[in-house]
């Protein structure tokens, strides 16, 4: 079998979705998908028995290589590291590629939690829990025995168990964020205490490109102090919208008509437990 242009259209959303979830980077995922298809086009058609399995294996292994080489860069990163936000239009299911994007495991909270996993744990968790691959398929893709894959998955799930409580109800979370914005603007402390965990943590990602907190900000009082400080001297043309970011509502901030930052949330038990403020211009979509 030979890879065709039709295969490119069919499998590209799946491959991008694997790459993005593995790496937390849109640009890196897109590059790896392109490299994968270039390699596939050059392959002898006799060597490709199962197109989907072959393409997924190439993408996954390229991501594993990238994660290993990126470890040093992550260690040198200035301040907290947030995954690159994926700004989406509201999905309605009319496009087949949306089915892949609508799967779980896309939220900023989930992707950030993936950083606590070893590369092989990340791969097995995604392939099994998000993309429903069988253990036999995963074993072929990452070149491990099925029994080892099961152990890797068990270990990975234990390490990120708390993310399973994340609320993924878009409209419910959107309503909560609206209430947060209103309470924040009116400085209604009692309402904020109902909406935000006392132990909330804010991760501010400027990447050394813009001014941002170099360490996570912990506790409700400290997080609110930082947010009030940030919004105190904003220019008159400042405005924000609640947009679909990684299939969850997020606050998208504009200054001078340009996208300035994105504030995403980890919501659990109807409370904001974590916030992810991404300001690094290299991570912000141009739109």
Automatic annotation (TrEMBL):
Coiled coil: 146-173
Positions of the RNA polymerase sigma-70 region domain: 8-71
Gene3D superfamilies membership: 1.10.1740.10, Winged helix-like DNA-binding domain superfamily/Winged helix DNA-binding domain
Keywords: Coiled coil
Pfam family, one: Sigma70_r2
UniProt xrefs under SUPFAM superfamilies: NTF2-like, Sigma2 domain of RNA polymerase sigma factors, Sigma3 and sigma4 domains of RNA polymerase sigma factors
Matches recorded under InterPro entries: ECF_Sigma-70_Domain (IPR052704), NTF2-like_dom_sf (IPR032710), RNA_pol_sigma-70_dom (IPR014284), RNA_pol_sigma-70_ECF (IPR014303), RNA_pol_sigma70_r2 (IPR007627), RNA_pol_sigma70_r4_t2 (IPR013249), RNA_pol_sigma_r2 (IPR013325), RNA_pol_sigma_r3/r4-like (IPR013324)
Domain RNA polymerase sigma factor 70 region 4 type: 109-160
Domain of life, per lineage: Bacteria
TM annotation in the entry: none
UniProt keyword annotation of Ribonucleoprotein present: no
Keyword field contains Metal-binding: no
Subunit field text: Interacts transiently with the RNA polymerase catalytic core formed by RpoA, RpoB, RpoC and RpoZ (2 alpha, 1 beta, 1 beta' and 1 omega subunit) to form the RNA polymerase holoenzyme that can initiate transcription.
PANTHER family reported in the protein's UniProt record: ECF RNA POLYMERASE SIGMA FACTOR SIGJ, SIGMA 19 FACTOR
Protein name stated in the entry: RNA polymerase sigma-70 factor
Source organism (scientific name): Cytobacillus mangrovibacter
Highest classification ranks of the organism: Bacteria, Bacillati, Bacillota, Bacilli, Bacillales
């Amino acid at each position: 079998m030979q890879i065709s242009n039709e295969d490119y259209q069919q499998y590209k959303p799946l491959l991008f979705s694997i790459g993005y979830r593995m790496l937390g980077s849109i640009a890196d995922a897109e590059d790896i998908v392109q490299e994968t298809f270039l390699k596939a086009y050059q392959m002898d058609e006799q060597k490709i028995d199962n197109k989907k399995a072959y393409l997924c294996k190439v993408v996954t292994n390229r991501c594993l290589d990238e994660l290993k080489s990126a470890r040093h860069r992550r260690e040198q990163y200035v301040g907290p590291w947030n995954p690159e936000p994926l700004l989406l239009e509201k999905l309605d299911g009319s496009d087949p590629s949306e089915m892949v994007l609508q799967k779980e495991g896309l939220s900023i909270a989930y992707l950030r939690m993936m950083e606590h996993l070893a590369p092989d744990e990340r791969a097995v968790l995604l392939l099994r829990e998000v993309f429903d691959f069988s253990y036999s398929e995963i074993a072929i893709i990452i070149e491990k025995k099925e029994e080892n894959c099961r152990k890797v998955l068990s270990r990975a799930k234990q390490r990120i168990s708390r993310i399973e409580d994340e609320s993924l109800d878009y409209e419910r979370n959107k309503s909560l964020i609206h209430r947060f914005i209103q309470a924040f603007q009116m400085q209604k402390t009692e309402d904020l205490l109902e909406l935000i965990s006392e132990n909330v943590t804010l991760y501010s990602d400027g990447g050394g490109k813009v001014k941002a907190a170099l360490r996570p900000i912990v506790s409700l009082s400290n997080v609110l102090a930082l947010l009030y400080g940030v919004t105190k001297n904003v220019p008159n043309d400042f405005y924000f919208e609640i947009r679909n970011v990684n299939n969850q509502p997020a606050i998208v901030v504009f200054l001078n008509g340009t996208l300035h930052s994105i504030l995403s949330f980890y919501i659990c038990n109807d409370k904001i437990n974590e916030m992810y403020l991404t300001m690094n211009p290299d991570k912000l979509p141009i739109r």
